[in-house]
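Risk register update: the risk of archive-format incompatibility is retired. Evidence:
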Amino acid sequence: MRAPRAPDCRARGDPGSRPPPQATLPALSFALRLAAVFAVSLATLAAPIAAQSYDPATAPAECAAAAALGALLVTGALVLRLYLGWDYVTQRLLSAAVPYEETGWYDGRTFAKPPPVLARDRLLGRYEAVPIRARLRQILTGIVAASLAAGLGLAAAPTAPDGGRAAPRLVGGAPVFSSAVLDPADLATDDDAAEAEAAAQGGRPGYCGDELLRAAAGASAAMCAPRR
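Archived output:
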């Protein structure tokens, strides 16, 4: 009995060289779609999360930078996915031999392109796939640069005054505001220490002086807004 043959790919070229269609759009249409992705992710995901971390009324710059950073990460993930797809397609188009991708007994075998197919695929790769991949790389580089700028701006932003109270110090892993409190355990047994700590906190939770502690407590920025 004659062994079955692997399918002939000469009529249709490399079976794995079907590129993602989104990046084939004209530059303006593609830019508009990316802008739409950025706007939707900003409005529905990044901005609400940023507003919970930074009060827009007291820290608008930090809130805007955090929201922009989140939306840029979502958009960058999409562009990265497109770039990886086009990079894979480009490599297969320019290669003289490619492995099969279809399910069957011939999985893992290599398809050597006949000269006409190789010439056609390399023309497609050099004049269509390579420019699109380069455009995606430029967009991805710009998104990475903008994300770094937003992150650095967020990190360098001055910390808003914490309602006039002094910064807490960590005692036994707990934030303590009053200099009269030497041990956080005293707050449960010493009324004078508890009263001094409450006065030093300004009537607000102690975690309001630290972003990490506030996030760990699950508190919103509004809960730590200065009281008038």
